[in-house]
Design goal:
The chain has 274 residues and is of the alpha+beta class. The chain is built from five helices and 13 strands. The chain has two domains: 79 residues; 167 residues, Jelly Rolls (Sandwich), CATH 2.60.120. Strands 1, 2, 3, 4, 6, 7, 9, 11, 12 and 13 form a ten-stranded mixed sheet that branches. Strands 8-5-10 form a three-stranded antiparallel sheet, with no helix packed on it.
Length: 274
């Protein structure tokens, strides 16, 4: 019984050794092991058993080191691939931005109206000033072209602002606003005193920042829509603007099946920036 158990254990070790050698041979590794026999015999069986156990452990360690190296190589390759992909994305984004920024700029924003069913074919190219988003002129522009019994649901506007230097700037908006974002970052504005605009003083870096404004209309908030950015050092309001290519693409959009109607009387000639 004891002899059978020993032979079984030796067979297991022999099989493990054979598998390890096949693996190492397949991946190009070699472990130098000196052995005087290929199968156990007599009193040398215990020594051979120990030698094979050592060889199997050495092979396993070599395999683990090799696999660890492969993982490191793959990790570095994946990181470099992601970095290359990001560089390509940044280059394409810069190219697209350069194309957009060619040509004149205009004081204004790209504003859209929505009812409960979705966007409607009316736009506002003026910067919301607290009076012009939902006024008599807007209602006159929509008269006969829009079902007045459908409640207005939302107004959104996008544009850009050039921050002249790193510093503190004051954002202002009207009550009940939904979102006020610069470069995708949302800011919380609060009202210092009743009857005054909602404000927030924020630190901004120099450069062009994308502006996004949204307001709902479940309590008449659209009437007070306002977008204003002020340099606290000089006290001057910074112009929010759109690029020529943006205006043309926005106005010429026929995705709603009809031409869009501008509601504030905005013109390129009057709002062109030098």
């Amino acid at each position: 019984m004891k002899e059978k158990l020993v032979r079984f254990q030796l067979n297991q070790i022999s099989n493990a050794w054979s598998d390890a050698m096949k693996t190492l041979t397949a991946i190009g590794l070699c472990v130098p092991i000196l052995m005087s026999a290929t199968s156990p015999a007599g009193d040398d069986g215990a020594i051979l058993n120990a030698n094979r156990a050592f060889a199997s452990a050495a092979a396993q360690q070599a395999l683990e080191r090799y696999l660890a190296e492969i993982e490191d190589i793959e990790r570095v390759a994946a990181k470099r691939k992601e970095q290359a992909r990001q560089r390509l994305s940044d280059a394409l984004q810069q190219t697209r931005r350069a194309e957009v920024e060619r040509g004149p700029r205009y004081h204004g924003m790209l504003g859209t109206y929505q009812d409960n069913k979705g966007r409607i074919p009316f736009i506002l190219l003026s910067v919301p000033d607290g009076t012009n988003v939902h006024d008599a002129r807007m209602r006159s522009a929509m008269n006969g072209r829009y079902e007045v019994n459908e409640p207005m649901y939302r107004f959104e506007a996008r544009g850009s602002v050039k921050i002249p230097a790193k510093g503190t700037y004051r954002l202002e908006t009207g009550r009940g606003y939904g979102q006020f974002k610069l470069n995708g970052v949302s800011y919380n504005l609060s009202q210092p005193k009743p009857g005054q605009p909602l404000i927030a003083e924020v630190e901004l870096d120099q450069g062009v920042h994308e502006v996004y404004f949204r307001v709902g209309n479940n309590g008449g908030q659209m009437l007070y829509s306002l977008v204003r950015i002020i340099d606290t050092k000089s006290g001057k309001e910074l112009p929010v603007f759109v690029y020529d290519s943006q205006v043309k693409a926005f106005v010429d959009d026929l995705s709603l099946g009809v031409e869009l109607t501008e509601t504030s009387g905005w013109t390129m000639k009057e709002n062109r920036m030098e």
